[in-house]
Every structure is written in C-alpha cells, then in structure tokens.
Amino acid sequence: MSKPIPAANIDNLSTWVKYKSRYCESCRGTCCSLPVEVRFKDLVRMGVVDQFEADEPAKRLAKRLMKAGVVGHFNHKSEIYTLSRYANDDCIYLDQKTRLCTIYEQRPDTCRNHPKVGPKPGFCAYQPK
C-alpha cells in the first residue's frame, strides 16, 4: 500500500514533490496558479494574436491584450507577457470547475515545459483534488 502524498504549499518550495506524470490526473492544477510567462509565438499558438501582428510594436500589442484581459503584465525589455489570472491566482485558461486547461492543445511553452522549468525544476506543487 502506497503512502498518501501530502498537499504542497505553492509558495513554499520545500513542500513540493518530485514530479511524476501520474500526479497530474489527481491534482487540482496547482501549477496553473503560478504566473505564466509567454512570448509572441505562444500568443499566436493560443489564437489571441496572428502572425501578421508581429510587426506591430510589442508595447501597443501588450496594451490591447491587457485591455482584453488576456495579459496582466508586460516586460518591455524582454518582451515577455504574463497571462492574466483570476483573483484566486488561477490562470484565466483554467476551468474553475474541472480544473483542466481550456486551451491544452494550444497552451504556451511555459506550460508545455513544466515542471522541467519553473521555480523548482523537476518538482511540482501537487495538491490532490
């Protein structure tokens, strides 16, 4: 009989567990409560901009996406956008009932590469549903 996995505190990296893909099936999607940084190519994949907007000044594009509620922050120096989040810190693309990503096939690279990259590579803030 396996011992239950304790729930992690997303803000306390020492509580995170070594990642195993099987955890995702029973997790409440805690990683989707972390800030999600994206680049222009991610926004294209997500369908919120199109490739033709690549020539538009990033600052103007960011302003439009912020007004639309897609982006919550933009770093002008690195041209990295941070997706908007709900008041509970969940990503706006996380379904609040099912706790599943609503754009999974189009998700940004940050999400595709988690937990290989992130605050504690190779670990996740697993919290059972």
Helix run count: 4
Q: In order across it, which strands form the biggest sheet?
A: 2-4-3
Task: Tell the overall outline.
Answer: elongated
The percentage of residues in β strands lies in 5-15%
Describe the protein's architecture and organization.
Helices cover 19% and strands 12% of the residues. Strands 2-4-3 form a 3-stranded antiparallel beta sheet. The chain has a two-stranded antiparallel ribbon with strand order 1-5. With 129 residues, the chain is of the alpha+beta class. It starts with 16 loop residues before the first strand and ends in a 5-residue tail after the last strand. It has 2 domains: 1-33 and 92-129, no CATH class; 36-84, no CATH class. The protein has 4 helices and 5 strands; from the N terminus they run E-H-E-H-H-E-E-H-E.
Compile the SSE list and pairings.
Elements lengths: L16 E2 L4 H4 L10 E2 L1 H7 L11 H10 L3 E5 L4 E4 L25 H4 L10 E2 L5
Antiparallel strand pairs: 1-5, 2-4, 3-4
Short description, anyone?
It contains 4 helices and 5 strands. It has 129 residues and is of the alpha+beta class.
Any descriptors?
12% strand, alpha+beta, 129 residues, 2 domains
